[in-house]
Amino acid sequence: MNNTRLISLCVILLFAAADTLAEEKPSRVIAETLLLYQRDNGGWPKNFKWDDRVDDHKKEELLSQKRRNDATIDNSATHNEIRYLAKAYVRLKDERYQQAALKGITFLLEAQYDNGGWPQYYPGAAGYHRYITFNDNAMIAITTSSSISVKPFLLMALSPFQNMDYTLEWEAMQDNSFTNRGR
Hints:
Layout (H helix, E strand, L loop, with lengths): L2 H14 L11 H10 L18 H9 L14 H14 L2 H17 L26 H6 L7 H8 L25
Helix pairs in contact: 1-5, 1-7, 4-5, 4-7
């Protein structure tokens, strides 16, 4: 995949990814838990509790599992974590949340088949796990994310440009359009 296509896909996913739990403010505790569960390949396993308290023993255990190949899009895994961390980055300004969200997007791009679908697990899925997965609305959740409000992820994507003389103020309108004003 060439860099232009990759950047375009990342921006599209970034725009689409920010508003999980739309009205809820992101919690630093949850964001930290998501960082611990993220695999080295960028994805997340399924069926863990975001709000579990992680003591030192559990943290060691999770860090030892980073190399596992159990990342999935099944049961709303990975795409929801990306959205949450993007929103956490915008609100809490922790660069680790941005990096984890981008790593998750890279995971989704690498896992995506040429025909546009995603396997249930990636990498190295065997059996039915290697097929495009429609259960649990996995494909639908990823591909329809563009209907989600884009403002938080747009702000995240533009954050490297915050210190420029010309700044953009994005105002989300009811029809999801936005305006800008130079300063």
